[in-house]
Amino acid sequence: MLSSCANQQVETKPTTSVDDVLSTKSEDTRSYAEVIAIPMVMSSLLDDKSTPRVGPKNAKKAVVVFFDYACGKCAQISKEMNKLIKENPDTEFIFKAYPSLKRDAKVANYATLVANEAYLQGGSELFLAYNKAVFSQRENSGRLTNEDVEHAAKRLGIKVDDNSLKQKAATEELETRKLGKLIGFHGPHAFIVLPTDLANMSAEQLESNTDKIYVISDKQTNSITDDYQEAAKWSASKIQTQLKSMK
């Protein structure tokens, strides 16, 4: 069996404003939704235009996917996300990378930086093509290398500064990973389903609408089953059910 993306207990360093909001709440007692409902967190989830996204810009519903290019379970989940994208053309799917520290994160970081370039250069279509190529390689070989990433980028015509991106991948933690840690996730294959109008709400309004934020945590996808494919199908089913329940 391919190695799983185990939960990672990593110290976070949120900004002071977030610290102030969460100062009276421990990670064990606060819900994910309470953190997501902090305006700066909500904005980072929904308004970051550099984050790869698929679907209509004026969508009323969004699915935020935290993933890891080096993760075998995420490779299976990617297939299910592609199905959900086709089945829900009115929904925006937003992809946030969360490389697990259980493995060497440099390759996953590099793959993510190239994915961002793919999105910036060719939009959602090029991003999805790259996404499929990289995850297919991960699934077929059981691992991912920088050479695999470079081959996918070259084949798809993605222009990248390899040396610069590799250096950044080796030395900097991804902002999307910091965001996932801040929310309370300890690894990838975590999901958030929510209405996009939350991005326009004040702090007080968000606090009153946390019930509209649906979360599948990495802990849930890790504990539901050891079978990657079944875990992926379970996650997709939960997401689809939630999307159907939203107006």
Automatic annotation (TrEMBL):
Gene3D superfamilies tied to this protein: Glutaredoxin
Membrane spanning stretches: none
Thioredoxin-like fold domain span: 50-162
Pfam family, one: Thioredoxin_4
Protein name: Thioredoxin family protein
Biological source species: Francisella philomiragia
